[in-house]
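TEACHING EXERCISE
Course module: macromolecular assemblies
Task: Read the component lines below, then compare them to the predicted structure of the full complex.
Student: A.B.
Group: 4
Components provided:
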Amino acid sequence: NAGVTQTPKFQVLKTGQSMTLQCAQDMNHEYMSWYRQDPGMGLRLIHYSVGAGITDQGEVPNGYNVSRSTTEDFPLRLLSAAPSQTSVYFCASSYGDRPLGEQYFGPGTRLTVT
Amino acid sequence: GQQVMQIPQYQHVQEGEDFTTYCNSSTTLSNIQWYKQRPGGHPVFLIQLVKSGEVKKQKRLTFQFGEAKKNSSLHITATQTTDVGTYFCAGTGAGSYQLTFGKGTKLSVIP
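Instructor-supplied answer key:
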């Protein structure tokens, strides 16, 4: 099992550029989520999904889109990057359709927007 | 929305001293989870508590869930340099699909 994988590991964008952060898991988990981590802010939920075709907003969804066409993949799209989106992004997954158990985190994507 | 507060933000201890971090929620929680994140790494699950008043131990780590299911604590006995990292609590409210994290406590251990 590869667990939760994220690509790329590092990315530098210019303001206004778009990109997609990839997340995949091979554990057949229903629940997947995206967090951003900023210094002193802990992890804040961006979007989550309770299964293929079902997504919803978390605490800080503005500027981000998601889709879940398969159980395995949960990409995060930045449509027009802004410096405020400079952060470390973590994808996570877990059994069931709620976050009521261990969250398996990917290694993260470190994004800088200039 | 649900808020989870965690204190202290930083803790510096001498190796061998004890360490405690506290977590408080604005609402009653269905569960509380604890994670450890090493510098440059990703959060790693430590434990989950679901019952009122629950206490669980993992070697030198003791986790408690309050009677009202609104607060929790993590206590480390006789810290070691391998305990260095940031400890996060995270909770889910009843019927919620969202896991809310505290801001974490960064532990430094002086050898």
